[in-house]
């Protein structure tokens, strides 16, 4: 604003004297006219633009104030959000620790259960194996006894046919009849 005043006042009316004249003089009346004109011009401009200028400056001041308040609100909200996120992160870390601990406990419990189940299954398999061995042994013994009985019968048949002559058969029959008679007499 002062620059406009200086521009309006600058060409100050210093007139050089005519050739051969002694000195120049200063035009005070021109200076006062220019100051008056500048004052009227700027006064009128200020008077006309005062209300819009005040409104503009007031609005700009309100805008700046609302912007500052909005930024402070945003800053408080961001701080609250940051605290909430920090709390959630701490809760997540605690939850992860608890999950890890729970998983380790469950793993140990499952390992113990599997170990116990494995031992139980091993005992069951051993018992079944022993029972199967006993069954196979009993079957083998039965088969062996049958085979021995068959061999004895075969051997007896062979001996009977070889050593049992009709004369030996007659003596055996007579001896059995005598013994049967003694048994009947004893009753």
| Strand-residue proportion | under 5%
Report the mean per-residue pLDDT as an integer: 83
Q: Secondary-structure element sequence? A: HHH
User: Can you tell me the number of structural domains?
Assistant: 1
Q: Mind describing the biggest β-sheet?
A: none
Low-confidence stretches: 12-18
Question: What's the N-to-C terminus distance?
Answer: 166 Å
**SS elements, strand count:** 0
Helix proportion of residues, in percent?
over 70%
Question: Measured on Cα atoms, how large is the radius of gyration?
Answer: 68 Å
Structural class: mainly alpha
- What is the count of helical runs? 3
The outline comes out as rod-shaped
Explain how this protein is built.
There is one protein chain. With 187 residues, this protein is mostly helical. It has one domain. It is built from three helices and no strands. The longest helix is centred in the middle third of the chain and has 136 residues. The N and C termini lie far apart (166 Å).
What labels would you give this structure?
187 residues; mainly alpha; 3 helices; 88% helix; rod-shaped
Give a short synopsis of this structure.
With 187 residues, the chain is an all-alpha fold. It has helices at residues 2-9, 28-163, 166-185. It has one domain (34-167).
Set out the fold topology.
Elements lengths: L1 H8 L18 H136 L2 H20 L2
């Amino acid at each position: 604003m002062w620059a406009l005043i200086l521009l309006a006042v600058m060409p100050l009316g210093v007139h050089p004297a005519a050739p051969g004249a002694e000195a120049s003089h200063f035009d005070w009346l021109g200076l006062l006219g220019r100051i008056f004109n500048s004052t009227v011009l700027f006064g009128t401009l200020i008077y006309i633009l005062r209300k819009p200028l005040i409104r503009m400056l007031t609005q700009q001041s309100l805008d700046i104030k609302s912007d500052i308040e909005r930024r402070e609100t945003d800053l408080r909200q961001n701080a609250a959000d940051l605290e909430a996120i920090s709390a959630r992160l701490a809760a997540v870390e605690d939850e992860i620790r608890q999950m890890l601990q729970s998983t380790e406990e469950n793993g140990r419990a499952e390992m113990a259960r599997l170990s116990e189940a494995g031992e139980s299954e091993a005992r069951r398999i051993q018992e079944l194996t022993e029972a199967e061995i006993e069954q196979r042994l009993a079957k083998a013994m039965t088969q062996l006894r049958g085979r021995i009985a068959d061999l004895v019968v075969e051997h007896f048949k062979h001996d009977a046919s070889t050593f049992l002559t009709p004369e030996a058969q007659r003596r055996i029959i007579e001896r059995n009849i005598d013994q049967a008679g003694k048994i009947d007499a004893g009753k």
